[in-house]
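Q: Okay, next protein. This is Outer membrane protein beta-barrel domain-containing protein from Pontibacter fetidus. I've checked the sequence twice, so it should be correct. Can you predict the 3D structure?
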Amino acid sequence: MKSVFTLLLFFTTLSFSALAQDDQLTRPQTTAAVAGEAVAKGNWLVGASIANIGHNFKSETFTFDINPRAGYFISDNAAIGAQVQLGFIAYDGGEDFRYGLTPFIRYYFPEGAAPTHRWFGEAIVGFAGSSMEDSEGDAIFDAVYGVSAGYAHFVASNVALEGMLNLIRSNANIDVSNDSSTGLSISLGLQIYLPGSGRTF
């Protein structure tokens, strides 16, 4: 009986040890020390950010915005590219589809950099418009420009999660009203950094 108990204890300990090792092997990766290589000259940046998802109970307004983007690093830490602005507002009495194209320039600051994350600044300028259902002001185009401050945290060798604080000015009819607007927003994004020709991370 004693030997059976000892054998059972041995196999139980072995099983827990194997499970603990397997748990360590399958734990998801949450950080990667590649920030410097990812923002090097010749690399590409593709991804999207999502902002302004919400519902206003008082005005019965639902808002959703998404901004796909692509860029190219013209030098270490500096990228240029363009993003598409797509948005949707549903409000009492109608719907509004918003669109635009905004070239951008982004700079990753070497100051305060770490192997797993980078701070960056971004400026955009372009055009935007909207198409309100049953509106005489349908399909209005006008200027949109702004600046953003952001933080990129690398979760894999070429993937970063980003948070951005944006200050955007638009004269386009992108709101329910026809007036120009300036506003702050917070956006979250996922960016993929692709190595240039002959490079690897």
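A: Here is a summary of the prediction. The helical segments are 2-26, 35-38. The chain is about 15% helix and 60% strand.
Q: Noted. On to the next one.
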